[in-house]
Design a protein that fits this description.
This protein has 195 residues and is of the alpha+beta class. Helix content is 21%, strand content 29%. The protein has a single domain, classed as q2cbj1_9rhob like domain (Jelly Rolls, Sandwich). The longest helix has 18 residues. Pfam families: 2OG-FeII_Oxy_3.
Length: 195
């Protein structure tokens, strides 16, 4: 076991999990510094797919940079996420074949309204992961991930650097609350292959 059996257990019990310390402070600082150095390569994020893809700042205000499997700047995080993917497959037989992910930055005041991480008519996104890259995040900085739970309540996850949020993509609607300063993350989905 790689120490991520708690994630598999939580996905069975509740469908979601928050794991502080997934990256160390030094690893967070290195990845956010590398991300900031590539800021000019980020593009406004959109909603929808293919012909239905659109940029709409009233729904979503982040900017993203899609990552390749072997991206050297994110190598530590990607290797650790791949280990988690392997453990979830071994424990839960989810058939997770790959990680689709991007770096994301929300400028101060920006947000992403309530949504589900499944494209209409597709079920390839199985598990959502959000890895926060915000050193020294304060309680008053905002920017929480609000996860809407099965019983109608919600839980808020503060975007502290190194914290990993994991949840079932087809089960939990969620939103990103506005932050008072720039908010960084590595966000993605463990996917199964489509038919």
């Amino acid at each position: 076991m790689n120490g991520y059996d708690c994630v598999a257990n939580a996905l069975v019990e509740t469908g979601w999990c928050v794991l502080p310390g997934f990256l160390s402070p030094d690893e967070v600082n290195a990845l956010v510094a590398a991300s900031r150095s590539r800021r000019d390569d980020f593009a406004r994020a959109g909603i929808g797919r293919a012909g239905g893809h659109a940029v709409n700042a009233t729904i979503r205000g982040d900017e993203v940079l899609w990552l390749d499997d072997g991206d050297p700047a994110a190598a530590v995080a990607l290797a650790r996420l791949d280990a988690l993917r392997g453990e979830l497959n071994a424990a839960l037989y989810l058939g997770l074949a790959e990680l689709e992910c991007h770096l994301a930055v929300y400028p101060a005041g920006h947000f992403y309204t309530r949504h589900l991480d499944q494209h209409r008519g597709e079920d390839t996104r199985v598990v959502t992961i959000v890895l926060y890259l915000n050193p020294e995040w304060g309680e008053d900085d905002g920017g929480e991930l609000r996860l809407y739970l099965d019983d109608g309540s919600h839980t808020d996850v503060a975007p502290h650097g190194g914290t990993l949020a994991v949840f079932m993509s087809d089960r939990f609607e969620h939103e990103v609350r506005p932050a008072r300063r720039e908010r960084w993350s590595l966000t993605g989905w463990f996917r199964r292959r489509g038919l």
